[in-house]
Amino acid sequence: MYAIISIIGFILSRFLAARRHPGLLAERAHFTQHENTESWDKILGPLVGLGGGLILLIAGLDALLDWSSIFNLILKIVSLLIIVAGYSLSAYALIENRFFSGVVRLQQDRGHYVVSSGPYHWIRHPGYAGGLLTYIAVPVFLDAAWAFLPAVFLVITLVIRTKLEDKTLQDRLAGYSDYAKQVRYRLLPGVW
User: Fold this and answer.
1) Residue range 97-149, pLDDT digits in tens
2) What is the pTM of this model?
3) CB within 8 A of 118, min separation 6: which ones?
4) Domain interval for residue 9
5) Does any domain span residue 164?
6) Residue 94 domain-assigned (yes or no)
């Protein structure tokens, strides 16, 4: 079920994003080739990818070696709803933001400007927020308590990446500081 949700969510979000912003998938596909990627993101970006893979690897090992107890049905249903909500929020951010790159960089070559519509009206980094929801819920849904270790690693990494990306945008993207004054929260409304 998790694989089906992930695959369908990936395909559908990319299809809708490509229809709305034809250049976006090319931007995302060539993320390793951009020369103006922020230096710190050359470390954090791959760590995010590694963390996502580790959650699934640890979950697989957990199931194979029977490390964890099975979570109850109610928790699994709640975690499934959180996973779907996380994927939906991230997909909405991807579809809404034509500058939703795989790396942190100012996209002057693509006419980069502040996006404040859709989920960006409530929080400044909804793609990361959706990812955080998903990463935290996956260990419960897959009955893999040990997968919380890479999930916590990912949360820490994404919080650091969000802070650095937000500072970069405030310092270097015209209009972002004003946007940040209007939309106060980076990841979690009412908290941060």
Assistant:
1) 999 988 888 888 888 999 999 999 999 999 999 999 999 999 999 999 999 99
2) 0.88
3) 92, 93, 95, 96, 97, 126
4) 2-29+41-182
5) yes
6) yes
